[in-house]
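Quick one, probably user error.
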């Protein structure tokens, strides 16, 4: 692992003994083994939780609280239905209705060097010029994210969000903090799925990244 040539040579003639004697491989393997190790107390707690959760699901099924039954998102194809839906007004969001965010709002959170809130300088410059190309909303702003009242849990990130016509309008990637309890209970008043607006995705590809040829291969619906 000390040079590209050595890696290529190994890939052409892979030998287990070479890996077993490689310091980096040995170190990384030991680290993963250590991270995945569990104490007896943690193993018991996880087993107890798993058994309790299965009882909860069994109880929900027998109670017939709801008529819609869909599988867990992990390793399964799962469809959920919902609507774009706002949350109570929040002064931290510059949007007219608190069911979407804009690039102006994103820039206001900018913190240079911050892992979560840093942004490329060019994005800041393009936003100051309102250089949104053909993907600006009719109100002139660049919509970045929007909220829906779909259920979301681990494994949904990256899922396509379609409108009633089957057109791609966004990608689901997160939930608000109230959605974190979704494995146990669904709060239809506060729980929301956070989706990136497909117009922002297209803007990043075409305008920011200069890869218009990729967008040209798609059929865009206005």
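Nope, works fine. Designed sequence:
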């Amino acid at each position: 692992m000390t040079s590209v040539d050595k890696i290529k040579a190994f890939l052409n003639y892979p030998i287990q003994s070479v890996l077993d004697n490689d310091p980096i491989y040995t170190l990384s393997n030991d680290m993963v083994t250590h991270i995945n190790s569990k104490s007896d107390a943690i193993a018991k707690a996880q087993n107890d939780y798993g058994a309790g959760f299965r009882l909860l699901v069994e109880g929900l099924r027998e109670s017939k609280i709801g008529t819609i039954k869909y599988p867990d998102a992990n390793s399964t194809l799962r469809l959920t239905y919902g609507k774009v839906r706002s949350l109570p007004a929040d002064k931290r969001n510059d949007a007219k209705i608190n069911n979407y965010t804009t690039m102006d709002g994103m820039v206001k959170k900018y913190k240079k060097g911050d892992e979560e809130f840093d942004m490329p300088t060019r994005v800041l410059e393009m936003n100051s010029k309102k250089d949104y190309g053909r993907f600006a909303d009719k109100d002139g702003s660049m919509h970045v994210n929007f909220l829906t009242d779909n259920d979301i849990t681990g494994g949904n990130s990256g899922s396509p969000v379609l409108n009633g016509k089957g057109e791609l309008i966004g990608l689901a990637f997160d939930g608000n903090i109230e959605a974190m309890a979704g494995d146990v209970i669904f709060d239809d008043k506060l729980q929301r799925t956070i989706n990136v607006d497909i117009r922002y995705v297209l803007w990043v590809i075409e305008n920011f990244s200069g890869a218009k040829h990729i967008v040209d291969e798609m059929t865009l619906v206005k």
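The longest helix spans residues 40-63.
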